[in-house]
Amino acid sequence: MDEKLWEECVKFHGHGCPGLAIGYAASFAAMERLGIPMERAVDEEIVCVSENDACGIDCIQYLLSCTAGKGNLLFRRTGKSAYSFFSRKSGKGIRLVVEFPAGWEDLERGELMRKILESPAESLFVFKKPGFELPEKARIFESVRCEVCGERTREDMVRLQEGRKVCLSCFKPYDRGWI
Questions:
Q1: End-to-end CA distance of the chain
Q2: Total tally of structural domains belonging to the chain
Q3: Angle between the 3-13 and 56-64 helix axes, to the nearest 10 degrees?
Q4: Distance from C-alpha of 120 to C-alpha of 161, rounded to nearest angstrom
Q5: How far apart are the C-alpha atoms of 93 and 131, rounded to whole Å?
Q6: Picking from 34-38, 71-75, 92-96, which range would have the lowest pLDDT averaged per residue?
Q7: Any idea what the CATH number is for the domain that residue 173 is in?
């Protein structure tokens, strides 16, 4: 573990915690498994699809420069501590699912964080193939004015309702209890 880099991640996030340590370990494991050099993504060369919105993604943002605004940090909110990483250059992808050794769930937070940072990736993650393809690159959409509230929204987020273009906030779904 690179102490200086870890401290930079802690500063970026605001505090050190086991979740941040998971993101730190996941970032380095992904770089190693995908052959990604230790450099921040200028654009979308590296893509991360996180299945949670927890602390670990801050390390992924800081270390790999995967960000929601740039379009290379995406969320599939399954609630799982799992991350899929892709290299656009090679087309390769890997999914990391957190699976701690038995007994770790009883550790005090500081001890758990230390163990995560000091352990090899193979003892922290199950490595799998992502269950989906590399997401397409981010696109720029036109803005459309909602005919109910008057606010502008991305064109792909507009719905037609009673012959009017409406934003998702104004759209009233007709599902009659169906999910």
A1: 46
A2: 2
A3: 120
A4: 54
A5: 10
A6: 34-38
A7: 3.30.60.20
- What is the predicted pLDDT for the residue at 39? 66
56 inside domain: yes
Report pTM: 0.83
For residue 108, pLDDT beyond 90: yes
Q: What is the mean pLDDT of residues 26-52?
A: 87
- Angle, helices 3-13 vs 18-34, to 10°: value is 130
Residue 41, pLDDT > 70, answer no
How many other β-carbons are positioned within 10 Å of the β-carbon of residue 88? 16
Task: Give pLDDT, residue 175.
Answer: 78
Tokens representing residue 174 in the block: 């007709």
The last residue of a domain, from among 90, 106, 128: 128
Whether residues 94 and 158 fall in one domain: no
Which comes out higher in pLDDT, residue 59 or 44?
A: 59
Q: Tell me: do 116 and 149 sit in the same domain.
A: no
